[in-house]
Amino acid sequence: MTELCGPAGPPTGGRRPDPQAIQTMDPILLIHPPVAKPGEPPAGIALLAAALNARNVPCTLLDANLEAQLFLLDRADAPPDTWSTRALRRRDEHLTALRTPALYANPDRYRRAVADTNRLLELAAASHPGVRISLSDYADEDRSPLASDALLRAANEYEASLFFPWYAARLPELLEESGATRVGISLCFLSQALPTFALLGFLRARWPGLTLVLGGGLVTSWMSRPGWQNPFAGLVDHCIAGPGEGPLLDLLGAGPPTADLGPDYTGLPLADYLAPGPILPYAASRGCYWNRCRFCPEPAEKSRWREVAPATVVRHLHALRAQYQPVLLHLLDNALSPGLLRALADDPPGAPWYGFVRVHEQLADPAFCGRLRASGCVLLKLGLESGSQAVLDAMAKGIRLDLMERTLAALSRAGIATYVYLLFGTPSESLVEARQTLDFTRRHHRAITFLNLAVFNMPVASDEAAELPGTGFSDGDLSLYRDFVHPRGWDRRAVRTFLDREFKRQPEIAAILRRDPLLFTSNHAALFTAHFPGLDGEGIKT
Ligand code: SF4
């Protein structure tokens, strides 16, 4: 099918073509931009790749996040202090260790490897005043990723980006090789926003004829904001909200997506991620089947729940296991449905797995938890949010504390580790309720393997945002959250003081928090559980 392979190189200038008039089978380059945790391949572009391949659209995948971070690590030099000197000396040794199972049997060595590697990334930003980069984040004190004018400035001044040397070295070669005339960028996290716009600015300036398409979770959230008006129309040809397969294929004139496809990771460098083997993400649903919690952006953004049929999910997971031999499957759903959990227990995917669940009666059943463990479940993430029943009811969480207690006990007995998420500072909480959360956590500390503590942000489109007096948007015109006056005076500063001076100082809680894998947090947590079959050392007992 040579005639379908498109031109030998990207357009190098001239008038921008009408995007609607694009030839169907021109190649496309799909990019996962920096900065996100480099522990696993990106699910979004892998799913798009499967949809495009099924329609014979030539497509190339680029994990720019992983490659650019490795590029920066490789260029680190002139360390100014003892720590940095050691980090530089051990750079290759640490990178190799992070890709080796044995490291995950030794939490202290792991922490040192991550801290040293991160130190080198920090050093790479030393020549860019105001820029802070880590293995999990990127920030620029002069530019908010939530202000469209700052993002457009990042695009205009792309040569000043920390990533420009890598963009300039990698993109020309890749566009030449792939012959791509279209570039799709999957923007999911805020930490990717500024580097994404620098990349868009570079692509637009250097190859004005390219068609640029922007999608991903963050773009979806922006486009769900009330009164959204695209501020990027002069830079980006198409912004896509929600699942991208249909709109992208439609845009390319390639027909509807083929039903029931799983992600295709073949175009990504699976051996290069900072993990002891492939950790493969998989989304069995989009949105949330509960979709009622008042603090959550999902209902506020009116996302519709779409589930892949559980039998299809199981088939996909078997296929991923057979093709890539993952050390871990990462189920990305906001909440794995009870039906899917049953399907996994009935037909185990054959590789260890973890994911987020909403607590329900099935999970309080010790026999069912035993079957989940036998299916390969090594860790479940649970949104407890609060140890106050009144707060849970006010946020429409739909769970009872006694059910959570029974669930924690059943999971602990089954040997499934837990990553419990707590949320402080919601409108119905005060210090009294926050202390109830503290008491709950202490009482159940043996069944809580890991903890995530968050301070409440008011989703901009939520019902509560309309009900409570506020002081405008938190950060910029693209902010997803809104400032508000807490009705009980329990503001962010008071919450933070409570967390730092009281909550985190409880010995049982401090011990849980110390277990959290540095920077990689829940993405690596499952690897530190004693029963993780990929490792043979001593891990954390559940
Ligand atoms: S269960 Fe989770 S994802 Fe679903 S609405 Fe509640 S907080 Fe949001």
Q: What key phrases describe this protein's structure?
A:
542 residues; alpha/beta; five-stranded parallel sheet; 21 helices; 17 strands; globular; binds iron/sulfur cluster
Structural class: alpha/beta
Tell me the number of helical segments per DSSP (H or I, 4 or more residues long): 21
Bound molecule types: iron/sulfur cluster
The number of distinct β-strands equals 17
- Radius of gyration equals 23 Å
Helix content: 25-40%
Distance between the termini: 55 Å
Q: What gross morphology would you assign?
A: globular
* Strand order, largest beta sheet: 8-11-12-13-14-15
Whole-number mean pLDDT = 91
Report the portion of residues in β strands.
5-15%
Largest sheet: 6 strands, parallel
Low-confidence blocks of residues: 1-23, 533-542
In short:
The protein is 39% helix and 14% strand.
Model description:
The protein is α/β, with parallel strands linked by helices and 542 residues long. The chain has 21 helices and 17 strands. Strands 8-11-12-13-14-15 form a six-stranded parallel beta sheet. Strand 5, helix 8 and strand 6 form a beta-alpha-beta unit. The structure holds iron/sulfur cluster. The site of iron/sulfur cluster has 12 residues, from helix 11 and strand 11.
